[in-house]
């Protein structure tokens, strides 16, 4: 159903490789500063429009942009061009699942790249209609008592290895369910999961515990925009953390 579709925006820094080479060899600290500042700017802007942004690669981000028209995307392109020494291109698409939406947006980018070697400030694709904001489902995963189990018993690097191993495992499992997973800091992971039923999330948590010995809990938020779904997912997770339910998964909806 069209009312349940999700809108995804892929954000890419234009000509990033060639531009970085103009900075000389002593550039890595400058690149890290630029990437973090640009990411913060995009997170702030999309949040102001009730969206949410995640790193995909440091020169590429993925936003859940339900309710944000193409005209507003143009505004953020102008804002970036005014504040940073780089431009961004964006491809917007919708789908029944997050994977489908990002695939369509990726294909739009690739079609242009086959015709134009180094496109700049592209804004391509389609957005949901103003009267149909679609639907966003977000799953916020958290490891049970990670600090006691690993942070306080192993070196910082060894505990980080566990975080990365789990990130890879969850990425593959969510990909099998046409969902997108992103690392959210600490021992937290966020998945955009339209189309994934509650029973599959519960089964996934059980399988990870059996295979890796890592117990998880998950808060799920469902709403019309990315920001609201993220808020509800976090509230659901807090509900579990506070011991208000014995379940490993809790869902909040606001439609």
UniProtKB/TrEMBL annotation:
EC assignment: 3.5.4.29
Keywords from the named record: GTP-binding, Hydrolase, Nucleotide-binding
Enzyme class: hydrolase
Reaction equations catalysed: GTP + 3 H2O = 2-amino-5-formylamino-6-(5-phospho-D-ribosylamino)pyrimidin-4(3H)-one + 2 phosphate + 2 H(+)
InterPro entries, A to Z: GTP_CycHdrlase_3, Nucleotide_cyclase, Rev_trsase/Diguanyl_cyclase
GO MF terms, alphabetically ordered: GTP binding; GTP cyclohydrolase IIa activity
Pfam families: GCH_III
Role noted for this protein: Catalyzes the formation of 2-amino-5-formylamino-6-ribofuranosylamino-4(3H)-pyrimidinone ribonucleotide monophosphate and inorganic phosphate from GTP. Also has an independent pyrophosphate phosphohydrolase activity.
Protein name as annotated: GTP cyclohydrolase III
Organism: Candidatus Marsarchaeota G2 archaeon OSP_D
